[in-house]
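Q: What residues go here?
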């Protein structure tokens, strides 16, 4: 019975990851590139997280707080990085990098695939693992 739950959970996670993948690809398709510069470093729990100022093509500026931090600081003030943003919603800034664009897709698909393999394997192979009845002989 538990394998059916694994299979169901895996299929749901696969559907969610494909939906998130579609959203990410749509975002990339309608977004513009911009350059962001590290303007400061925030100290969070004895680690440093960069704060970027991203200049949009419409001469606007968006402040982007990077979600990761490290000690020692992996970014220096003045360093630049490439960002993507939606022209209709400039506050939707994402750092341009494979993981930063597809992180939830990767995580949910990496969880879904083993669940589907284990659940489907038990589901389809369980009839082969049963002991034959003595009445069959």
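A:
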């Amino acid at each position: 019975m538990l394998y059916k739950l694994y299979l169901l959970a895996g299929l749901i996670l696969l559907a969610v990851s494909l939906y998130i993948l579609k959203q990410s690809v749509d975002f990339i398709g309608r977004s513009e590139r911009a350059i962001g510069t590290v303007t400061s470093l925030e100290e969070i729990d004895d680690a440093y997280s960069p704060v970027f100022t991203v200049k949009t093509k419409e001469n606007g500026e968006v402040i982007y707080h990077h979600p990761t931090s490290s000690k020692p600081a992996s970014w220096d003030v003045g360093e630049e990085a490439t960002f993507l943003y939606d022209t209709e919603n400039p506050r939707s800034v994402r750092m341009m990098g494979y993981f930063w664009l597809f992180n939830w897709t990767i995580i949910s698909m990496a969880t879904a695939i083993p669940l589907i393999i284990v659940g489907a394997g038990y589901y389809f192979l369980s009839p082969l693992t049963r002991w034959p009845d003595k009445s069959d002989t």
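A: Context that may help when evaluating the design: Strands lie at 31-44, 47-55, 61-65, 80-86, 89-95. Helices lie at 2-30, 98-125.
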